[in-house]
């Protein structure tokens, strides 16, 4: 039996390819927008924001390096390229997946550290520290991605034949230690850290708000941090929720016979996991007014209308002011939220 032949029907292969094509287009466009906006405001960008850009780079890298080959294979009704491309695809998916979860973990830790110093603007996280953390996430992911190449673990085709990943069913004996280490260090531990950090942030915001009810500045900082917390939680939850079904199916393949899972069933968690690269730009767009405004400014309609600029009035964002001593000229140039975000991130 050809392990690279599709185990799905031709109609389902075509639908899978169309789905992956849509995911690829949305992921590339969305994450490119995040990176473009970061470049546009690079002179005003604060160190913690680099982590969001780094996350967009990982999602963009996954979409560019993986999805075109998957779409072509789905429409060809078999995996193209054989063992070489299968190993490449599995390594790329594993590499970008580990880089993403590590980046999300670092984001949670940094956000928690920032929340401990809401009333101490002098406490900052330097560019050097954030750059080192970003580089560490890539280096850590590369080490784990190379382990199967070096003999600890193995890459192989998925049961449905149109994708490649870690060969879960082949690692029941010789790769069992790899699987346990992988799930412990790259799924369970990061998830616990992320949950604890965001739970700690929520507690810090609550007590900071209660201690400063008579103050003007700190409660507004709490309000802005609350919005940033919602964005961060949604991003982390989206990634974990997308990959959790795939992780459960993979564990089933380790402890049970993977042939008991129909190919159509094993396809669904894999496709759901691949959609994780799409959600982050959507979350930014829906919950960050400054990001939404800058995206709208790229639209050609904004060249003929001032509606995009008029939509973000001072009254709309005044509750997110951090300081009352902002000059009117500055306030006219930037929206209140952008000023607030710049000041609040400076706390990091």
Automatic annotation (TrEMBL):
Under PROSITE patterns, the record lists: G_PROTEIN_RECEP_F1_2, OPSIN
Name all G-protein coupled receptors family 1 profile domain ranges.
30-284
Q: Which GO terms describe its molecular function?
A: G protein-coupled receptor activity; photoreceptor activity
Q: How does it sit in the membrane?
A: Multi-pass membrane protein
State the compartments where it is located: Membrane
Question: What highest taxon heads this organism's lineage?
Answer: Eukaryota
Query: What GO CC terms are in its UniProt record?
Result: membrane
Q: Which residues form the signal peptide?
A: none
Q: Which residues cross the membrane?
A: 20-39, 51-76, 88-114, 135-155, 175-207, 228-246, 266-287
> Main site of residence?
membrane
Does this UniProt record's set of keywords contain Disulfide bond? Answer: yes
Q: Per the UniProt entry, what is one GO biological process?
A: phototransduction
Q: Is the keyword Disulfide bond in the record?
A: yes
Q: Which InterPro entries match?
A: GPCR_opsins (IPR050125), GPCR_Rhodpsn (IPR000276), GPCR_Rhodpsn_7TM (IPR017452), Peropsin (IPR002962), Retinal_BS (IPR027430)
Q: What keywords is this UniProt entry annotated with?
A: Chromophore, Disulfide bond, G-protein coupled receptor, Glycoprotein, Membrane, Photoreceptor protein, Receptor, Retinal protein, Sensory transduction, Transducer, Transmembrane, Transmembrane helix
Question: What is the protein name for this chain?
Answer: Opsin 8, group member b
Which species does the entry assign this protein to? Dicentrarchus labrax
């Amino acid at each position: 039996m050809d392990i690279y032949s599709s185990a799905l029907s031709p109609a389902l292969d075509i639908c899978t390819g169309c789905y992956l094509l849509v995911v690829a287009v949305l992921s590339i466009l969305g994450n490119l927008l995040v990176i473009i906006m970061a470049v546009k405001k690079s002179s005003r960008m604060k160190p913690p924001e680099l982590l969001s850009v780094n996350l967009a780079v990982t999602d963009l890298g996954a979409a560019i390096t993986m999805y075109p080959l998957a779409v072509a294979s789905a429409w060809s009704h078999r995996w193209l390229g054989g063992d070489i491309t299968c190993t490449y695809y599995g390594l790329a998916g594993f590499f970008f997946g580990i880089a993403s979860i590590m980046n999300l973990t670092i984001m949670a830790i940094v956000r928690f550290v920032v929340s401990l110093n809401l009333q101490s603007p002098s406490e900052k996280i330097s560019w050097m520290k954030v750059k080192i953390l970003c580089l560490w996430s890539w280096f850590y992911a590369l080490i784990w991605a190379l382990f199967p190449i070096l003999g600890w673990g193995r890459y192989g085709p998925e049961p449905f034949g149109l994708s490649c990943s870690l060969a879960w069913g082949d690692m029941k004996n010789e790769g069992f230690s790899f699987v346990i280490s992988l799930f412990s260090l790259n799924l369970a531990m990061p998830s616990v850290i992320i949950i604890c950090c965001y739970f700690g942030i929520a507690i810090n915001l609550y007590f900071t708000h209660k201690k400063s009810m008579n103050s003007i500045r700190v409660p507004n900082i709490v309000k802005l941090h609350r919005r940033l917390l919602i964005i961060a939680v949604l991003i982390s939850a989206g990634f974990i929720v997308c990959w959790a079904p795939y992780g459960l199916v993979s564990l089933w393949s380790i402890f049970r016979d993977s042939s008991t899972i129909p190919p159509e069933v094993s396809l669904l968690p894999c496709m759901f996991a691949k959609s994780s690269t799409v959600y982050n730009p959507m979350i930014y767009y829906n919950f960050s007014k400054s990001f939404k405004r800058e995206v709208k400014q790229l639209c050609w309609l904004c060249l003929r209308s001032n509606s995009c600029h008029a939509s973000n009035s001072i009254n709309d964002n005044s509750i997110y002011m951090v300081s009352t001593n902002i000059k009117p000229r500055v306030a006219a140039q930037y929206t209140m939220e952008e000023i607030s975000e710049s000041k609040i991130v400076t706390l990091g």
